[in-house]
Amino acid sequence: MSEAFPASPSAVPPAAVPPASVPPASVPPASVPLRGSEHGAALGPSFFEQVGGHATFERLVDAFYRGVADDPVLKPMYPEEDLGPAKRRLQLFLEQYWGGPGTYSAERGHPRLRLRHQPFHVNPDARDRWLTHMRRAVDSLELSPLHEETLWDYLQRAAFAMVNTFDD
């Protein structure tokens, strides 16, 4: 009986092993710039600039709060009947986090996200609802895959960090 496969990987001739996927030399590797100093100066265009600046974050937050406005679990967590102030705070925070203006900290101080969310009952259900609305909002932006994944990774980590109870 003959074997269809070699007994070990070392028995495969080198020419039969496919090369690792390497992008063509004409395509620069995708990257999100790092900060160049502790004061936040980016080494290149910031994520904020790369994705379209203020207008993009405005669209993100508007789409997100359209979902929150009708959510029976999340909507009661907002102290204002009008979600306008909450929308503004989230937009300013996200813009600053991603390399935009520092207006959020200038107006509100250090973000202290967990502390600011402590008064609210943020359980896994609330987190998942928040993520559902945010996922729809992120998808509506039609960002490049790199930018979409970078943004979504942060939003997921932040949402999981805000959970402060496992009670219903």
Automatic annotation (TrEMBL):
Q: Name the InterPro entries for this protein.
A: GlbO/GLB3-like, Globin-like_sf, Globin/Proto, Hemoglobin_trunc
Region of interest (Disordered), residue spans: 1-33
Compositional bias per record (Pro residues), positions renumbered to this chain: 11-31
In terms of superkingdom, the source organism counts as Bacteria
Q: Which GO terms describe its molecular function?
A: heme binding; metal ion binding; oxygen binding; oxygen carrier activity
Q: Which UniProt keywords apply?
A: Heme, Iron, Metal-binding, Transport
Pfam entry (one): Bac_globin
Q: Where is this chain compositionally biased, Low complexity type?
A: 1-10
Tell me yes or no: is Ligase among this UniProt entry's keywords.
no
Give the family this protein belongs to, as stated in its UniProt record.
Belongs to the truncated hemoglobin family. Group II subfamily.
Q: What is this protein called?
A: Globin
